[in-house]
Write the structure tokens for this entry.
Amino acid sequence: MSATTTVEVPAARPDDEIREFGRRLQLTRAGIWFAGNQGDPYAMILRATDDDSAPWEERIRAHGTWFRSDLLGAWVTADPAVTGRVLSDPRFGTLDRAGHRPDAGLLPIAAEFPEYERPELARLHALAAPVLSDTAPLGVERAEADAPVLARPPADGAAFDLVGDVVRPYVGALVLRLLGAGEGERAEAVRLLTRCGPQLDARFTPQTLAVARDSAAAVREVAALVRELVAREAATGADRPAGLIAALLGRGVAPRDVERIGLVLAVGAPEPAATAVANTVRALLSGSGDWANARHAPAASAAVDRTLLVRPPARLERRVAHEDVRLGGRRIRADDQVVMVAPAAPDAPRDVSRTGPYLGLALPVVRLAATTAVSALAGALPGLKAAGPVLMRPRSPVVRSYARFPVTAH
């Protein structure tokens, strides 16, 4: 098992430690801001103050294969070929040579949501793949999947927030159902999954002190819930709703590994899935979209897959060189950070299954949740229309999450 090192966000610690944590977040944010003021396009992406990061991605591509962000200490590439080589090259890892997250001292995240090195990730992927590739044993029934949407239809013509009011609760409930949580457990846990959302973005840009502490606290609670689900299923086995945890244990996967897989899915899938739903709905409601046909599962699936290619679920991925590497005409030195940008461009072919440590494992659940949500929404709300400009969540350069998506349903 590989080493994993993270820095736990303080929950209830003395005021001076909390202030020190907040100071580190502010200093890191200030460094990103300063680099952006000096014309660094990578820093502008990390600022995540624009609704669209495409202009800064274009600036990175204009530099050629590599853009060197001297102020932020990273080699940045938007070249799909180079990205593929980095992700498949064993000389690059998610941790540095000492087994630490390269940004652990600057961007603390929840210790329960660790960074796994390549061999451990590959092992977890291999354990989960047989179950994730087959949704039948997960007990996904369309009637129950539709319930979160159909149970709370908005008043005719009234504006509401598609993402906050409908999509996040829907996706969270579906992911919890996939894990095997009971109906009573899901109601409260859905809010926890939403609060975990900033964890993926926190690996690249500091969140506010309040968000960072709240998100880390939510991860701790979700980790406890996953442990409880695994322990309960391991002890009883029968007479429980079918779910991914039961399926993994039934295949002989060790409970500790089931806990790790379950936590990655619980924290890493809901927010990318909710964002994929919102991006797909925006495309289908546009002049070239076909919202009416999306109620059919094949059409919804095709629309979600197109969206995941054009607007990938993870816009940034990082690796660290474990030895000197010559790549793309540059010498990458040992312990140099390499950041890969997945541009939001339809002419940039890529394999979305190679999106990084967490979304690589969670992608089947992201696809399933997003497809089911789009199909259910189109069937339940055929008169859905945009009701104003969308707002993106601040400090979300990786997922590009939504803060608000106003719509009406006639």
Summary: Residues 209-236 form the longest helix (28 residues). Confidence is low (pLDDT under 50) at residues 1-7, 345-354. The two ends are 54 Å apart (CA to CA). The domain at 15-409 is CATH 1.10.630.10 (Cytochrome p450).
